[in-house]
Amino acid sequence: MRRSNCAGALQYVPELTWILFLRILDEQEAKDAERAEAVGAELMPPLESPYRWQDWAAPEGHKRKELAGGTPGAFKGFVDGELIPHCFPDVATVTEAGPSRGKKSRRRTTT
Q: Is the N-terminal amide bond of 59 cis, ω within 30° of 0?
């Protein structure tokens, strides 16, 4: 996720927040799946594969194994190029634009 045009670590906070959110969502999904199975209900996951934490970040995840066997930088390419744009298109747009582009300017006007 590190980009050479970033001014500081605070620019990573939105991406890291969303990635941690995906981890928490995955844990909740596992609990919900257990509950649904106990009552014989079907659970529709909020995210499809390969964008779920269990697919790309967990050590036994199929996407993680695929990325680990791929070219150097494949994992970073997946997170930056597929995961974040798929799950959070607005966040991806701002981060791709860089620190000074893609943001509205805030000007003070005096009256």
A: no
Nearest to 96 by CA among 15, 9, 16: 15
Question: Can you tell me the distance from the alpha carbon of 17 to that of 6, in angstroms, rounded to the nearest whole number?
Answer: 17
Return the DSSP state at 2: -
Using only the alpha carbons of the chain, give its radius of gyration: 18
DSSP string, 74-85: HHHHHIIIIIHH
- What are the extents of the domains in the chain? 9-97
Helix (H) or strand (E) holding 23: helix 13-39
- pLDDT for 66-77, tens place per residue? 998 888 889 889
Put simply, whether the predicted model's pTM sits higher than 0.85 gets the answer: no
For 83, counting Cβ atoms within 10 Å of its Cβ (0-12 exposed, 13-18 middle, 19+ buried), the class is: buried
End-to-end CA distance of the chain: 43
